[in-house]
Amino acid sequence: MKRDSSQNSIPVSGEVETPHYLDSVRAIWANDPVRFTSATLGASPWSKQIEILEAIRDNVRVAVRSCNGSGKTYIAAHVVLWWLMCHHNAIVITTAPTAHQVRNILWREIRCAHHENAAAVGGTLLRTSLELGDKHYAEGLSTDTPERFQGFHEGHILFVVDEASGVREGIFEAIEGSMTSAGAKVLLLGNPTSLKGTFYEASHKRRGLWKTIHISAFDTPNLVKNEVVMPSLVTPKWVADAEQNCGTESYLYQVRVMGEFPSESEDTLISLKLVESAASEDRLAVSTDDFIEVGVDVARVESDKTAICVRRGNKIVWLESFGRQDTMGTAGRVARIAREHSPSAIRIDEIGIGAGVVDRLHELEIPKVEGINVARRASKPEQFANLMAELYDGLRERFMGGRIAIPDDSDLISQLASVKYSFTSSGQMRIEGKDELRSGEHSPDLADAVMLAFAKSADRGFRFWVGPESGDTDLEEPCD
Fold first, then answer.
1. Mean pLDDT computed over every residue of the chain
2. I need a labelling partner for 327 at 20 to 30 A (CA). Which of 25, 194, 228, 458 fits?
3. Domain check: are 188 and 297 in the same one?
4. Which one of 175, 191, 215 terminates a domain?
């Protein structure tokens, strides 16, 4: 592919002979970017910058959402040099929302890092390119033409997208087309300013595909020590001024200081912050006296998965999903879990083939089975469009009150933080249904199973079957 060098006509460095790296030495440094950056490039990365270096070494896709002044662009420049110097025939393609940002943000840092290490790095440095060889170079492209990002299929190619919230989706689509190479990787960095697009979805619906890193101002050395130990980073005074001028609940404070996507999303039911907080390993201890309840979301179509969630008290103790099975196979799995855990309730979404699973469990005389049709009327129809909305709103209240602990499972976290809601013309809350998912999006099977496991028994929508040994078919009081 012929590269467009129209923006790179102004040389800022003469050509320097590229040092010769033995493949064995290159391989060692490729596996230790932190030591290479420190020993060879003279950088002193702090903890989150180290995390970024190690993440791009170990993962194909890395997304870094950050506060202002965290040094993310500085370390991204060193990632570029590490990639070029430690990989054979390596290519780096960088971009940002505007040509000005390409030239004067990331590439300014790259030029500074190169000037400080010109003898070690070598190559020909221009304003937005660094060439070490015909198939060994870095280049900055603006986002005016997505086609310029196509056709890169070399073995070691790294895409770096700075200020990723503002980059057009066509660019991400073009980059994804080049991710077929075995050695291809992509690094996204930016303030989390937009509630849509690839950068947002990397921390939400597509979280399972991405290694995500979050940097708050309070993570930085200056805020940790409450003094300016690194002048290039955000300062305690700047944070204090932002709090006074904007307030901690403001959009700007959440994005610029906390490095979080703003919580005032119009359509996200449970914020990512709440979900991640509930995933703490030491959160909410369990007792053998706690009741056990099970939620089962049965796959409806071939692309869906069946998910089973087991809770003990307020903590999830078992979570699994598997490809669609027939009714007998799914019922058998649920029966096995019932015999192992002796739950006080087994709630199964009975829409579609789920009804067959419920009936089969009845035949097996498994006790405490409840068939739930989440499309039925809510017990508070003036507030909720259907039972699903009512049960998910109850789940939201658990997260808000800190009364739930979940495993640190990327798929579950992504699904829970991606549940969308809206209001009908009558003011009823409704949840985005599975038939409304966009092409390529996965059904929220795990989230639905959790919702069922933590569901309160409502006045409508439940079809109870307690079991032959008790002889009691009355509606039981819900466990909360």
1. 84
2. 458
3. no
4. 215
